[in-house]
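Journal club prep, notes for RB
We'll compare a predicted complex against what the paper describes. Inputs for the NAP case:
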Amino acid sequence: MKERVGFVGMGIMGVRMAANILKAGYPLTAWNRDRKKCGPLEAAGADIASTLAELAESSDVVIMMVTGPEAVDHILNSEGGLLSASMTGKCLVNMSTVPPHFSREWAARLRVLDVDFVDAPVSGSKKPAEDGTLVILAGGSEPTVSRLEPLFLSMGKKVVRCGEAGNGSAMKLTVNLLLATMMEGLCEAVNLGRKCGLKTELILDTILSGPMACDYFNMKAEMLRRDEYPPQFPFKHMTKDLRFILETAENCDASVPLARDTLAMFEAGLATGLSDMDFAAVMKVVETGRK
Ligand code: NAP
């Protein structure tokens, strides 16, 4: 008999990940702050909980995939939140991107309540979420991660065992530092080429014909060609992650000068209304000539 899964957060990622859990045959109950976004899952056969407490009561494993720490705190602690029901003996998985210290603090608080906590953020965006090919970065006790592995593999192609709770979040920020700076670098390179009089298509074709060709650049190059940035990974979320990266780097004394400059570009973009576009729209900040 498969575990009963509760899924909180029907955003770009959550609705697709929950749909794959349901497809894999897990009984699933969903909840979202804006209930309308539960429509597709309800149509696919999921139960929709009216409250978070109701979702907690009808689940063995509860997964959260929401914006970040503020949303997670609210879901757990608010009146009628998950912890207003008894979660004792259950497993709570946070797949949202948050700082490692935040995951560690929650792991410790939940241990006292006999709730098994795993942080399991994901590498991969909207399409891998839809295709069930995410890479799941799990931090938590070995037996719990092993128990959750089949569930994780309904959403992803690989589970990376990162160690104790908090390490999943650390791995996620490690990956996103590279993701953000690579994107910013691609935009700067394209912009330099254009300023020298080269055509965008020729620049992209040159980069993508050489050793730097990769799925990631291929996907983002299409956005640069069209100058259209429909959100796969929203600009506001990458900005949030860059803030977490700087905070975390400071806590562990890591040097991240590129991340610092890249965050400044993203903060500038947020101030000019790029919030809900894909984060590749950092091209627009580069084009406006920020030094
Ligand atoms: P999204 O589309 O913006 O969805 C955010 C979700 O969080 C929505 O369900 C929203 O509910 C919920 N939420 C926000 N504040 C809340 C609160 N105070 N209480 C309850 N619910 C709240 O985000 P997403 O793109 O799916 O990303 C989700 C997480 O995955 C983020 O941590 C992001 O950094 C990470 N991530 C995203 C991607 C990507 O490519 N998109 C890739 C990897 C990781 P409402 O619908 O009611 O607003």
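Talking point for the session: Residues 167-195 form the longest helix (29 residues).
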